[in-house]
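BACKBONE GEOMETRY TOKENS:
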Amino acid sequence: MTKHDAIVRPVRGKNSPQLGDYAVMAAGEPDLRMLCGKMNLEKDRFIKLFMSRLYVNDGQTENLALAGPFVGAPYAAMILETLIAWGARKILFFGWCGAVSTDIKIGDIIIPTGAIIDEGTSKHYRKSRNFCVGPTGHITEKIKDALSQGDICFRTGLIWSTDAVYRETCEKVKYYQSKNALAVDMELSALFTVGNFREVEVGAVLVVSDEISRCKQVPGFSRQCFKKSRGDVCEAISSMCLRKTI
């Protein structure tokens, strides 16, 4: 498997922007809007990127792009591949996740140290049968530093990534608890895999939106602790971008 054997490849069109090194991928629409405001990006000035939006600064912050929203591993990989083809080399993903460990609660912030592959996109990029993939580059340490400087608490550990949000069974939850997974999402392992394959830096930060650790969903999307943590993460990300430390 090589980087150049695919028939359909991510390319720069004649009207595609030339991105700088830095890009943020925000999975959720509310976080995308919040980041636009904190990063001084005009919400109505964007480039269509598939079914998502791409914001590129106009000289306010050198070398910065913001993309989203999106859901699921295949679509997230398409967004990432396109950002890379257009010039991005350091990409930070911000998303939500569901608690799998009983030690993880709604509103917790997680810096993933790896992702367990249970989605279908990664296998098309990998020869290895390893079930886990990690972040690339130094972004993980940089987001840790940014959160620590803001006195924001966070956890670190593994994330289980699955395509099938409605097939997160009790049997699977117990299995991934035995693998020390803290939480579950739908995109992370694919993003780490693409980052490894394309040899670019990809890191991530997640906020816990709900809990399934006791084989029953406890939603927390409207809870104040969840909203506060998202705001704290957006503040840390925007600070990193404005200081060019991503």
Notes: The domain at 22-242 is CATH 3.40.50.1580 (Rossmann fold). The helical segments are 29-38, 73-85, 139-149, 170-178, 188-198, 224-242. The chain has one domain: 22-242.
